[in-house]
Design brief:
The protein is of the alpha+beta class. The chain is 20% helix and 22% strand. Strands 9, 12, 15, 16, 17, 18 and 19 form a seven-stranded mixed β-sheet that branches. Strands 1-8-6-3 form a four-stranded antiparallel β-sheet, with no helix packed on it. This is Dihydrolipoyllysine-residue succinyltransferase component of 2-oxoglutarate dehydrogenase complex, mitochondrial.
Length: 407
């Protein structure tokens, strides 16, 4: 007598299943909301996005570290996570397990022959009448000669199927959409800025004639040399850098801990970019050392990253001054809100034509651009703000002996 022992030939590797954690956030971000792109059982390739974590400033994409199959989601959709929180489990198989083919259905049994019904008996023949039936008496009432209407009676109204609500006339509907974390944070920060900053907005206008002439002369050589379009934004950003260096207090910030005013010797300008998720302000750094080509390239690259939702936290940290261009939406005037902890923000709006009102200027139309500078009166006095805006106006508009900014 002998026994047969069976041995397992397939080893079970526990290392095939890995747990993917939430990536570390920047210092200013503590948590985020999870939005899943994949479900349990989905096959993913290496570096394919499994979920997005929306923080106060941007969205962080979490890719799969290896090819495999999603085995478990450890956080519900919309759940809050901190850095290092386990997100999901991934089985590193490289492909989804083959689904078992459905078992073939057994052939149906042959149908039994239907019994032939017996023929019904033929009815008996009716008797043939032997006399004519009696004729009914003629009525004494006259017969109405009006033609009979051929119109069919109106059909009865069809009742709505059960369970379906019949919409009433003039009914109005509404629906709700949850605010994402970024929009909530933007609303909170804007309200905080209004509550904590003693804000004041001063207005001015810029004659765009010199900038238009400069752009018309240089745009084709600029495009050929740098493969970039020459817009107005580079002139505005560079003019702001000159004004901030001329009036350093506009570039300063209050340190609430030490109660000191911190003067920055560098110029990092935040440029507001509108995205479907909300307004983001990526930073163009060290503008004082840039030329027009450097500024245009930096703005283009940051704008592309913002539209593709690829901005990192580091792209938006810092900033000493903000420029918001509401003119792209057709806005004519506005009072921009300061981006804390900065002390000032410049708002630019739509360019429009108007005749000049200077007595020494010929009657010709001007391409006018309104500018607004919102400032924190806790840091800046009226004189410094007005001088800073005037310096910006001279640099950008080419007045006061300036020939306009050069490429």
């Amino acid at each position: 007598v002998f026994t047969v022992r069976y041995f397992r030939t397939t080893a079970v590797h526990r290392d095939d299943v890995i747990t993917v954690n939430t990536p570390a956030f920047a210092e200013s971000v503590t948590e985020g909301d999870v939005r899943w792109e994949k479900a349990v059982g989905d096959t993913v390739a290496e570096d394919e996005v499994v979920c997005e974590i929306e923080t106060d400033k941007t969205s962080v994409q979490v890719p799969a570290p290896a090819a495999g199959v999603i085995e478990a989601l450890l956080v519900p959709d919309g759940g809050k996570v901190e850095g290092g929180t386990p997100l999901f489990k991934l089985r590193k198989t490289g492909a989804a397990p083959a689904k078992a083919k459905p078992a073939a259905a057994p052939p149906p049994p042959p149908a039994a022959p239907e019994p032939v019904a017996a023929a019904p008996p033929s009815p008996a023949a009716a008797p043939i009448p032997t006399a004519m039936p009696p004729v009914p008496p003629v009525s004494a009432q006259p017969i109405d000669s009006k033609p009979v209407s051929a119109v069919k009676p109106a059909a009865a109204p069809v009742a709505a199927p059960p369970g379906e609500a019949v919409p009433s006339k003039g009914a109005r509907s509404e629906h709700r959409v949850k605010m994402n974390r970024m929009r909530q944070r933007i609303a909170q920060r804007l309200k905080e800025a209004q509550n904590t900053c003693a804000m004041l907005t001063t207005f001015n206008e810029i004659d765009m004639s010199n900038i238009r002439e400069m752009r018309a002369v240089h745009k084709d050589p600029f495009l050929k040399k740098h493969n970039l379009k020459l817009g107005f934004m580079s002139a505005f950003v560079k003019a702001s850098a000159f004004a901030l260096q001329d009036q350093p207090v506009v570039n300063a910030v209050i340190d609430d801990t030490t109660k000191e005013i911190v003067y920055r010797d560098y110029v990092d300008i935040s440029v507001a970019v509108a995205t479907p998720r909300g307004l983001v302000v990526p930073v163009v750094r060290n503008v004082e050392n840039m030329n027009f080509a450097d500024i245009e390239r930096a703005i283009y690259e940051l704008g592309e990253k913002a539209r593709k939702n690829e901005l990192a936290i580091e792209d938006m940290d810092g900033g000493t001054f903000t420029i918001s261009n509401g003119g792209v939406f057709g806005s004519l005037f506005g009072t921009p809100i300061i981006n804390p902890p900065q002390s000032a923000i410049l708002g630019m709006h739509a360019i429009f034509d108007r005749p000049p009102f200077h007595h020494d200027m010929p009657y010709t139309r001007l391409r006018n651009n309104p500018q607004q500078l919102s400032l924190n009166r806790s840091v800046l006095m009226d004189g410094s703000a007005c001088e800073g805006l005037a310096c910006y106006q001279q640099r950008a508009g080419g007045r006061g002996g300036e020939a306009g900014l050069q490429v």
